[in-house]
Amino acid sequence: MNIVGSPALVLNADFQPLSYFPLSLWSWQDAVKAVFLNRVNIISEYDTEVHSPSMSIKLPSVISLKEYVPHQRSPAFTRFNVFLRDNFTCQYCLKRYPVKQLTFDHLIPKSRNGKTTWQNVVSACTICNLKKGNRVLSEADMNLVKYPGKPAASELQKNGRKFPPNYLHKSWRDYLYWDSELES
Fold first, then answer.
1. Domain topology for 79-147
2. N or C, where is the chain less crowded by C-beta within 10 Å?
């Protein structure tokens, strides 16, 4: 196993992942440091060991924090969180896109004093964004799937479970609950 590709899944003290999207992972170096600082419990380990002059340790694959970290109550307003709220789907044509192919669209355009807020911004593909242009929905003869609002942190976590990462180590399976089946 490549030591660089040995991240540790980080669980809160209640054994729930700190985050599903992005998945709460620490590098092997950060995980080992946290072990030595007595900040985490090792739940599962890789077969790979690292060595110092006086000792060796198996790399942690799953760790839990010793102290509970409360979840953020109010999600930050970021481009990524808007895309996550909207499930990486254009709110006009209903097609799912990679992040790099999505844009912000202001329902009330900024040129018309529209604000950049949860309630006025949706995910849009480039084609739909250009089609709508500097107009409101009625002028562009376009409709939304659903009107936007500020999501709860739990809603973003729930949406994040729909998009498992490319890499899932077998030792993480008991702690992650995705809407898709884990690979064997």
1. DNA Binding (I), subunit A (1.10.30)
2. C
